[in-house]
Structures are given as C-alpha cells and as structure tokens.
C-alpha cells in the first residue's frame, strides 16, 4: 500500500495549455485546462474558426439544448458584431447513432425517417429561438468517406487497434496529456504497477456491424463510426490541424471533447488541436440538472408556451454562460418583468423625443453616464463575455434615465440638446440588446397577448369608460357621452361588445 501511494503521488502530471500565436482580440476567456482566464488569441485576424457539437437527431430538443445554443449564439453575436471578428461557424448533425437505431426499432420507422423528422424540428426550434444557423452544417452519413479516411490513418499510425469484437478502438495511452480538459489524474505506464486499476478509457472509433443495423464498408471492417470520431473527423476536415474555438455544453467536456482532442492530437501529431474550449453550464430545475435520462426535460415548443423566446434569451443573458441556470417560475417572471421594463423605457424615451412627454433632463449627467457605461459594457464583454454584468450596467442606465423622464416639468417644448442626450441613451440600450439578438422596438401583436392579459386589459378599459360615462351622465355632458359611445362602437368593430346597464357597463367577446 505504501508503494502504491508513493507511485500515485509521483505520477500526477500537470496538464499544459499552449498559448497560441496570432491576433490578440483583447478578450479574456476561461480556460478549463489551466482553470483560469487567458487571452483569446486567434490564428488569423481575417477569420476565426468555431466548431459546435450539434444534436443527435433522435428526439425533440429540450430546453437544456435551448440554453446551450442560445448562450453560444449570444457569444457568436458579440464576437461578430461588437468585436468585428469574422467568425466561421461549423456544426455537425449526428444522424447515425445507437439512440437513433433504438428509436427506429421502437417506432417501426426507418432511421432516415427518424433523423429527417427530428432534424427539421431542431432547426425550426432554433429559428423560434432566433439562433443564427451555422455557416456550414455537416451530416455524418453524408461525409462517411472523410470519417473512414480519418480512422484509417489512426489505425496506420498505431493509435487505434481492432478489438476482439471487430470494432476499431482508440488507445488513449498513445497520446500525451490525455485528460487535460477534465484534469484527470494520469498514471505513467512505465511504473511498476502499470495502470494501478485505472478504468479503461479506450473508446470505439468504429463499431463493428451488427444485425439489423445500418453499416458502411471499410478496409478495417464493415460498421459505423463512433460518436467522438464523427466530430473529430468532420471538424478537422474543415479546419485542419488547429481550431480557434470549440464549443458545447459542459456535459460534453468529458468524455466527448476529451476524446475529440486526443484523436486529433494523435492524427496530426500535435500537442494541442483546439486552442479554446467554451462550455455552457447546465440548465437546472429544483437544483437538478435537466436531462432525458432523468426524465425531467421540457421540449422547446412546450417551453415556449410558458415563456416566449425573448424572455428565455433574457434569462440566458442574466446568467453567465459558464454558470448553471435555474429554470423556475420565479426566474421566468423576473426575466419577463425586466424585459417589460426595458420596453416601457423605450416607449418613454420616444414619448420625450416626440414632445409628448415633458421631463426634467440633466444632459450633463446623461452624457457622463453614457461614456462611463459604454466603457463598462466593453470591459464586461472583454471579461469572458459577462452578459450578467452587462444587464446590471443597463439596469443602472435605465434607472437613472427613468428618474429624469418621470420628473415632469411645465414646458411647451423640450430642449433639443436634451432630446439628443435621451436619443443617445436610447440608442445605447436598444443597440446593446440588438447585439444580444433582441429587438426592444418590437411590439407584441394583439393575437400574441396572453388571454389572461387581454381580459385584464379589457376590464381596465371598460371600468375607465364606465367612470367617464357616469361623470357625463351626472354633469349632463354630451361630449363625454359621445366619446363613450365612440369607444363602444370602435370596440364592436374588433369583436368586443360593450353594454350599458344604467350606470354600470359590461363587455363580452
């Protein structure tokens, strides 16, 4: 036991990250290998390579997927539109997999029918969430020749071997620094107690053919690719021996991303394939991770019945992309309230600008706040895309400006210099959310208003009309009564019937 402990203490290796050479973007990002923030340096100033692990299309996407892809979409928008980086994005579609085959057998549909249905549904969901499509989408079954060539080279270089069942397996002991993304303890195979009962981490790069399963012929035997190898082969086919950014959910860091890195380092005989790994946090419910295995997921379409896409994006903005995000009724309401306050702010600014609202504006304070908070926002985005900090900055700007807008003054006209200052604040707020993929100028159509909200709105309108009518009757003011009749007639055109019962009024649809 003493010998074993000595060996264990002496064989730990410090995982290394190689700082790339190239264009320093000025951004710092969290690095899971060194466990700290590092400068984001891309190979070429002209373009930056980005690869995202796509879905396995065997079932409906759930809100855990939504949070991952929305958060990554926000980061991509920031890189493209704030930092003016020419981002080239690639995503794979896993359309052959154990889960797809199992679903096919259960549903008595062909694998092709399964993947076509769920891939279309996935892209429809992404469109609903306002997630920008990747520049290049690569389906596994359409690029099998690339994957087979990739595996052939791994076998030839002795990094992969054929097991007893006929599958081709990657030997992780043939690469240095395996486990660096997850910071797994490595053990030197030259030690006396080789492996010391370390679990076998070798993984299949090509699964041998089985009865009633789709397969492809290859020089190393008929079968189909392993999941990890699909991404490795397709991403490297586009970007070669080095990628700037590789992204996905935190649950993919090990073993999926670890195995991708290991294969490509072996394939290209390099120590580092991906320079920066970006991982989004889990989506939680009652502090429990949402996953299909736990049967606690909610499909994206069902989620959109609870909160709209803009509210969900606001929830993602309020939480740092690396942190877990709790999906709860309270958090949804908080995001809805915040979004509503921003849209009300836009309405108030426009009312002041158009002269409908007369307010006590201190343009010196507004201009000073603008300069200060533009810098703060830039620093927050530089700091590992900290959108949560950005929301706090916007809240501060809105609160200070609202205080002025809601301080009335008796004036026939607003000072044009004050108007210009309010316009500059409005542009800052609206443009920031446009950067994040949201339009604060967009108004909600009546048919999109929740039924409960519409009922409450009509109750308020009816009560107001009723009080005006009572006042008109009491004062025998025909002009007020005519206004009430006009409201009644206009609502009738919209399908809302107002009936007067003495001094009381009611409405119906």
Automatic annotation (TrEMBL):
This is cysteine--tRNA ligase. GO terms for molecular function: ATP binding; cysteine-tRNA ligase activity; metal ion binding. It catalyses: S-sulfanyl-L-cysteine + L-cysteine = S-disulfanyl-L-cysteine + L-alanine; S-sulfanyl-L-cysteine + tRNA(Cys) + ATP = (S)-sulfanyl-L-cysteinyl-tRNA(Cys) + AMP + diphosphate; 2 L-cysteine = S-sulfanyl-L-cysteine + L-alanine; tRNA(Cys) + L-cysteine + ATP = L-cysteinyl-tRNA(Cys) + AMP + diphosphate. CDD domains: CysRS_core (cd00672). Belongs to the class-I aminoacyl-tRNA synthetase family. Its EC number is 6.1.1.16. Keywords: Aminoacyl-tRNA synthetase, ATP-binding, Ligase, Metal-binding, Nucleotide-binding, Protein biosynthesis, Zinc. PANTHER family: CYSTEINE--TRNA LIGASE, MITOCHONDRIAL-RELATED, CYSTEINYL-TRNA SYNTHETASE. In addition to its role as an aminoacyl-tRNA synthetase, has also cysteine persulfide synthase activity. Produces reactive persulfide species such as cysteine persulfide (CysSSH) from substrate cysteine and mediate direct incorporation of CysSSH into proteins during translations, resulting in protein persulfides and polysulfides. CysSSHs behave as potent antioxidants and cellular protectants. Mitochondrial cysteine-specific aminoacyl-tRNA synthetase that catalyzes the ATP-dependent ligation of cysteine to tRNA(Cys). InterPro entries: Cys-tRNA-ligase, Cys-tRNA/MSH_ligase, Rossmann-like_a/b/a_fold, tRNA-synt_1_cat_dom, tRNAsynth_Ia_anticodon-bd. Signal peptide: none annotated. Residues 47-336 form the tRNA synthetases class I catalytic domain. Its cofactor is Zn(2+).
């Amino acid at each position: 036991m003493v010998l074993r402990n000595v060996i264990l203490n002496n064989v730990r290796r410090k995982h290394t990250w190689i700082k790339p050479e190239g264009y320093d973007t000025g951004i710092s990002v969290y690095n899971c290998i060194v466990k700290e923030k590092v400068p984001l340096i891309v190979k070429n100033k002209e373009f930056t390579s980005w690869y995202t692990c796509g879905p396995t299309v065997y079932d409906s996407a759930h809100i855990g997927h939504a949070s991952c892809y929305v958060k990554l979409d926000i980061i991509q928008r920031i890189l493209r539109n704030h930092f003016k980086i020419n981002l080239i994005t690639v995503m794979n579609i896993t359309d052959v997999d154990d889960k797809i085959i199992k679903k096919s057998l259960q549903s008595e549909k062909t694998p092709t029918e399964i993947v076509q249905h769920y891939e279309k549904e996935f892209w429809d969901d992404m469109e609903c969430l306002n997630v920008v499509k990747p520049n290049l989408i690569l389906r596994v079954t359409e690029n099998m020749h690339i994957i087979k060539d990739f595996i052939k080279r791994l076998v030839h270089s002795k990094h992969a071997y054929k097991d007893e069942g006929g599958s081709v397996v990657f030997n992780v002991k043939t690469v240095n620094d395996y486990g660096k993304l997850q910071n797994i303890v490595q053990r030197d195979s030259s030690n006396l107690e080789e492996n010391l009962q370390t679990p076998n981490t070798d993984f299949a790069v090509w699964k041998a053919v089985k009865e009633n399963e789709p397969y492809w012929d290859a020089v190393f035997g008929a079968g189909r690719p392993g999941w990890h190898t699909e991404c490795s082969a397709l991403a490297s086919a586009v970007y070669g021996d080095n990628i700037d950014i590789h992204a996905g959910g935190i649950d993919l860091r090990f073993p999926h991303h670890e195995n991708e890195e290991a294969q490509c380092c072996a394939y290209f005989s390099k120590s580092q394939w991906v320079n920066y790994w970006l991982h989004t946090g889990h989506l939680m419910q009652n502090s429990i991770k949402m996953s299909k295995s736990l049967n606690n997921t909610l499909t994206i379409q069902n989620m959109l019945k609870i909160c709209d896409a803009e509210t969900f994006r606001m929830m993602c903005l309020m939480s740092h992309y690396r942190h877990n995000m709790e999906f709860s009724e309270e958090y949804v309401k908080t995001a809805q309230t915040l979004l509503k306050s921003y849209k009300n702010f836009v309405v108030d600014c426009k009312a002041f600008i158009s002269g409908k609202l007369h307010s006590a504006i201190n343009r010196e304070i507004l201009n000073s706040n603008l300069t200060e908070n533009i810098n703060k926002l830039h620093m927050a985005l530089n700091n590992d895309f900290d959108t949560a900090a950005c929301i706090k900055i916007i809240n501060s700007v809105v609160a200070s400006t609202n205080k002025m807008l809601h301080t009335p003054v008796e004036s026939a006209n607003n000072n044009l210099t004050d108007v210009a200052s309010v316009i500059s604040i409005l542009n800052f707020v609206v443009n920031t959310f446009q950067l994040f993929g949201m339009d604060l100028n967009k108004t909600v159509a009546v048919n999109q208003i929740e039924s409960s909200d519409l009922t409450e709105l009509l109750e308020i309108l009816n009560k107001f009309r009723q009080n005006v009518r009572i006042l008109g009757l009491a004062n025998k003011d025909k002009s007020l009564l005519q206004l009430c009749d006009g409201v009644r007639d206009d609502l009738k055109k919209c399908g809302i019937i107002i009936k007067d019962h003495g001094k009381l009024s009611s409405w119906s649809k």
